[in-house]
């Protein structure tokens, strides 16, 4: 099934189900705070593993005790698609295991 850009309404509806996530221009965005740099690094590695499984990758930024990511789908001109929300939901599911807030 081809990946299609989501409408603004579809994006807003899906964002309502993902507290902490927002639309930053043409990308979904979220930042997490963790207890230590090591915990943040471990979360980045975990996110990278999920991205490989999905074959869909975000821009990840590792700070001292923070992890930030933004994501859109390059194959449809940088629009937000269901793939981006699938990745966001998976990241939300793994975040508590790393103590992320």
Structural descriptors:
single chain; 101 residues; alpha+beta; Gyrase A, domain 2; four-stranded antiparallel β-sheet; 39% helix
Describe this entry's structure for a reader.
Helices cover 39% and strands 20% of the residues. It is globular, with a radius of gyration of 13 Å. Helix 2 packs antiparallel against helix 3. The protein has 3 helices and 4 strands, in the order H-E-E-H-E-E-H. By secondary structure, the protein is α+β, with helices and mostly antiparallel strands. It has helices at residues 8-15, 37-54, 82-94; strands spanning 22-24, 27-33, 59-62, 66-71. Strands 1-2-4-3 form a 4-stranded antiparallel β-sheet. Strand 3 (59-62) and strand 4 (66-71) form a beta hairpin. It has a single domain (22-98), classed as Gyrase A, domain 2, CATH 3.30.1360.20.
**Shape call:** globular
The biggest sheet amounts to: 4 strands, antiparallel
What oligomeric state is this? single chain
- CATH topology, anyone? Gyrase A, domain 2
Question: Would you state the CATH class?
Answer: Alpha Beta
Mean pLDDT: 98
Poorly predicted residue ranges = none
The CATH fourth-level homologous superfamily: Transcriptional coactivator/pterin dehydratase
Question: What is the name of the CATH architecture?
Answer: 2-Layer Sandwich
Specify the number of helices.
Answer: 3
Question: Strand-and-helix sequence, N→C?
Answer: HEEHEEH
Number of strands: 4
Distance between the termini: 35 Å
Beta-strand percentage range: 15-25%
**Taking Cα atoms only, what radius of gyration do you get, to the nearest Å?**
13 Å
Helix content: 25-40%
Number of separate domains: 1
What structural class do helix, strand and pairing data support? alpha+beta
